[in-house]
């Protein structure tokens, strides 16, 4: 804790002024590493009227003088930076004279601080400001199209800055030997010389080539992708009548094998998408929910966790996608964000997905922001990660809304299936497991020929006084032909006759309808005997 004490003495003859500051060096916080002393004019425009400006550093307990700094004439500047005290790696405080004039006074220290930054004070902030200058210089020297990205920056206690960077190479844009050649170019002396020149042009002329050391670079393929979906909580005005907890957004990864839905992965894990209607297996079927029958992606899409910061009012969920070990049949992975509570993803602010290299978390590959829209939608399709050729993958931004959420994904899956059909077409049959059954039915179509011939003969023998009608109901027979086809016909007369026939043959007609599964027409009992004899002939 610093304690200041001002003691100004003015003598009428000598006109000498003095200001004294007392510092407890042992009580300063550990994070304080630099102290800079600046003298500025209080009630005049500049320091022209002041001369013989000096500063003395002494030990108040022993009354011993450590060092003295002479500035001399103040000149036409508003302030002057006299000296600095810095705590170095040896744990001791070292005094260093500056003697640089600048603009700014005690009423506004902004100009003074800007000047100190150009001089390298504080050292931590000043060295961090050189990062974009160094990265831009590397891009220009190497004649690299994509910007050089910094992934990490650390400054040690000995004031050594270590900057980690990455050069993004796309296999479709480079030749096979470009990556090894680039790793050798970054360590050449020309790159270091251009860095020093660029930093000197920005005002940091204290650096020399000997101060920069380029460590060996390596080229590797990106295998794992870290996916972070972030959002801000809805505004309280949008939730005036809502009492439920509306902070949550569910993130899911839906994997497709061309048109076929392969897997759904969300906060519950992998769903094992393998069942469709009536429990029949179908690669192109509709998702029924989490069944726990295994992960179709071999565990290469995994849910990592969620974070919520109620103070900053934001949340985050993350997934990891292992591109290198994805099954060969996997072609597309959709990233979606859904709102299961309020069922409107549009009320969440700043919804975005950040793609990073999972093995190098500081490497941010891409950020996709979801635009604000007034149209209500339960889900937001953020992007699609799709396979191109071989081991290559590409990212496409969708940023569109649709229905469906973590409670019921079926509307969302139907929408994504339409997108996949437009991309891959409908080359595969929709119900591939039923092809063999359809072929068997086609082979049994010849059984219908006798029935069709009998129908024609019956219609030709219609009575001249009435109108005859024929109702045919058939049941699909197994392959062995054990159950015969059945047919019924009747003569339509007066309403009374029809009613009598319906009452006399009611039980038999009901049994026939339940066994076949279709409606039957009413017929007289005498005609039912003819129906039985006819069906016996057909059988």
Question: Would you kindly provide a written description of the structure presented here, covering whatever features stand out?
Answer:
This protein has 539 residues and is α+β, with helices and mostly antiparallel strands. It contains eleven helices and 22 strands. It has a six-stranded antiparallel β-sheet, with helices on one face. It is elongated. The N and C termini lie far apart (108 Å). The N terminus and C terminus are likely disordered.
Question: What fraction strand?
Answer: 25-35%
- Arithmetic mean pLDDT: 75
Sheet with the most strands: spatial strand order: 13-12-11-16-19-20
Distance between the termini: 108 Å
The biggest sheet amounts to: 6 strands, antiparallel
Overall form = elongated
Report the count of strand segments. Answer: 22
Helix content: 10-25%
* Rg of Cα set: 42 Å
Structural class: alpha+beta
Count of alpha/pi helices: 11
Present the secondary structure layout.
Blueprint: E1 3-4, E2 21-22, E3 34-40, E4 53-59, E5 64-72, E6 79-87, E7 93-102, H1 110-119, H2 123-128, H3 131-142, E8 149-155, E9 161-166, H4 178-185, H5 189-201, E10 224-232, E11 250-257, E12 260-266, E13 269-270, E14 301-309, E15 314-322, E16 332-338, E17 349-357, E18 360-369, E19 379-387, E20 393-402, H6 410-424, H7 435-443, H8 448-460, E21 468-472, E22 487-491, H9 495-504, H10 506-516, H11 525-538
Antiparallel strand pairs: 1-2, 3-6, 4-5, 6-7, 8-9, 10-15, 10-17, 11-12, 11-16, 12-13, 14-15, 16-19, 17-18, 19-20, 21-22
